[in-house]
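hey so u asked for the seq, here:
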Amino acid sequence: MRKLFQKLHLWLSVPFGVVVTLVCFSGAMLVFEDEVVRLTHRELFYAEPTGHPVVTLDEAARRVAATLPEGTRVTGVTVEADPARTWRVNLSRPKHAWAAVNPYTGEVVGRYERPPFFTAMFRLHRWLLDSRPSGDGVFWGKTVVGVSTLLFVVALLTGVPLWWPRTRRALRRSLSFAPWRGWRCFWRDLHVAGGMYALAFLLLMALTGLTWSFPWYRSAFYAVLGVEASQGGGHGPASSDGKGKGNEKGEAKGRSGGRSAAGGRTATPWQSAYDALAARCVGYERITVGPASASVAYGRLGNRRAADRYDLDPATGRITGFTPYADTAPAGKVRGWIYSLHVGSWGGTVTRLLSFVAALVGATLPLTGYYLWFRRLRARRRGMAV
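ran it, structure tokens below
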């Protein structure tokens, strides 16, 4: 049985090892994307608080809309609880794009689009830089990533019986690093001990990641959890990012109303909705308001895409409906959990850091495996020569 596991572990890893390395490395690069972007584009994220905002959400959206090219529209405005953060005016395209507005000056600070480096890492991670087919053709990059990930899961699982120590002393040795014994021992320790330390996180990321690759796997994954997978099956951004279903149906249309309590500003639909939600939702992390709906996220651990949903009257901003996260459809909850587990955000900074390290270790496993395999082949050739 051990020989069978050894052959499976080797011959399932050899053909797609390089792909696994690329997928794991690019995934690691994406873990702290938000933090890196905030450091490199600080002016888009932070504003010096100078009292009350001088513009309403509707006015901020109108100012951004006036700068947009034809075909691009405002889908909502996101306000963070931190008063030192700019307002994020979400755009319909490109994906994840938004414009920053300094609420204390009314200035449109700039427009954010995903940096080329992270765009490349995302496309490498998901599709090996392949492009979506225009018709019904095979999406080869996505398919190769999916097959490689599936084989990686098998390789990880077959590695466990190969590692399993017979004595307590062997267990301690198999989980230790001894760089002073030479590079060969170091690479072996990195492959064996590193793989075992990272095993749980690698399996978690791989098993959740496969839901993006294969519809049949996604349906089976949801079925195991007793949930029916939604049509399309994607794990797109939550509507708390301003791109939810209710936020894509109209452009920013401010209307005059009464007086707002915040600095005497003119109350408008989006501003009225935000004021009501901010007063109602104590401890929120961010509020996103759109033409007919709003979402409130609290930033709790677990499902990081969890949010309460509100229906709004487009003319007045009055709250007309409320769906707490607890009453969200099960498929929506599962999607949020899959994403949170895959990127390691479910436990906050600690689990994200562990996911980052595990992904880097995962990137080294095929390379160290190749190294050990080549050394073994060379040793055998020498033995046959003798």
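The longest strand covers residues 74-80. DSSP finds 13 helices and eight strands in the chain.
lmk if thats what u needed
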